[in-house]
Amino acid sequence: MSAYTTILGEARGRPFAAIVGWPIAHSRSPALHGFWLKQHGIDGHYGRLPVEPNRAALEELVAFLRDTPNARGCNLTLPHKIDIMPLLDRIEPAAARIGAVNTVIKQPDGSLEGRNSDGFGFMEALRYNAPTWRADAGPVAVLGAGGAARAIVASLVDAGVPELRLINRTRSTAIDLGVAFTPADGRQIVVDHWEDRARALDGVTLLVNTTSLGMTGKPPLDLDLAHLPHSAAVYDIVYTPLETGLLAAARGRGNRCIDGLGMLLHQGRMGFEAWFGVAVDVSAEQRRAVAADLGA
Questions:
Q1: What does the pLDDT read at residue 85?
Q2: Which tens digit of pLDDT belongs to each residue from 262-277?
Q3: Quick one: which H or E segment has residue 163?
Q4: I want to staple 174 with a disulfide (CB 3.0 to 4.6 A). Which of 96, 156, 157, 168 is the partner?
Q5: Which residues 6+ apart lie within 8 Å of 99 measured at CB?
Q6: Closest CA to 248 of 213, 271, 214, 216
Q7: In what order do the strands lie in the sheet containing 90-91?
């Protein structure tokens, strides 16, 4: 039985969307969207669609979304956020600037639009969990230079951060990211060497980890926090586990800490509202429900 047959059976003719990736069993998106469906009494479905990382498989996905009347769209996770873009009918300007899509919205005429809600989700969770942090207060350090980092760097630049320090194991990738998002008003994006990552934390107001280091099944993030101000916030977008080694170390020295679950919850709002026509908010009850689904 194909994944498409499975999700059609689960939807039973109801409007549906899905999280698409490879692999996909670990995703908690069904739990967060399922919470909203139940909360608002919507007769819809949100499931999982495993799609292999090749063009033919993505073309099959796009055709399925276009041709299935009750399909409303999908979310995209690794490794499809970039490769899907040429196959869509339209890319929202913000997503085109970031160079990645995490949400596909099926329009009334059947066309597919790509959007990116990662930056929105990141900033909303930051504002909620660190309400005293100000974008213009000082430098921000970002670890990593992948798709999530692109959305986060764009949102931090737009928020008015005066200096961004990019730190990535492959320095050339960080340089490309810095060139892409350096603002025209003279604010700086500095690319530091991975070996100098500890010293790059000197004086920052916010440290963001966008890498997979510290995630369950991945190597730990080796980072000395001695140079990090105790007043700085520390934000790890990893959510498995919720308390990463980085957050545990930062919490132990008194830094305000933000885990990746808030970003996951808030980034889902854009798609849900477009697919099911209801405005939604993130609540403490929903966070507890998704955390329980994680086994946290």
A1: 97
A2: 999 999 999 999 999 9
A3: strand 163-167
A4: 168
A5: 82, 85, 147, 150, 180
A6: 214
A7: 45-50, 16-21, 71-76, 103-106, 112-115, 90-91
Q: Could you tell me the pLDDT band of residue 84, with boundaries at 50, 70 and 90?
A: very high
Q: Is 106 a catalytic residue?
A: no
CATH of region 119-259, choose from 3.30.450.20, 3.90.1150.10, 3.40.50.720, 3.30.2130.10: 3.40.50.720
Stated pTM of the model: 0.92
Give per-residue pLDDT as tens, 212-264.
999 988 999 999 999 999 999 999 999 889 999 999 999 999 999 999 999 99
> Would you tell me how many other CB atoms lie within 10 Å of the CB of residue 216?
12
* Beta carbons of 8 and 66 less than 8 angstroms apart: no
- Spatial CB neighbours of 4, under 8 Å, sequence gap ≥ 6: 49, 64
β-strands 45-50, 90-91: how paired? unpaired
List the one residue out of 236, 62, 21, 42 whose CA is nearest residue 144: 236
Q: Are 176 and 111 in contact (CB under 8 A)?
A: no
Separation between Cα atoms, residue 264 and residue 253, nearest integer Å: 26
- 3-116+265-294 CATH, one of 1.10.10.10, 3.50.50.60, 3.40.50.10860, 2.40.33.20: 3.40.50.10860
**Domain boundary assignment for the chain:** 3-116+265-294, 119-259
pLDDT in tens, 168-200: 999 999 999 999 999 999 999 999 999 999 999
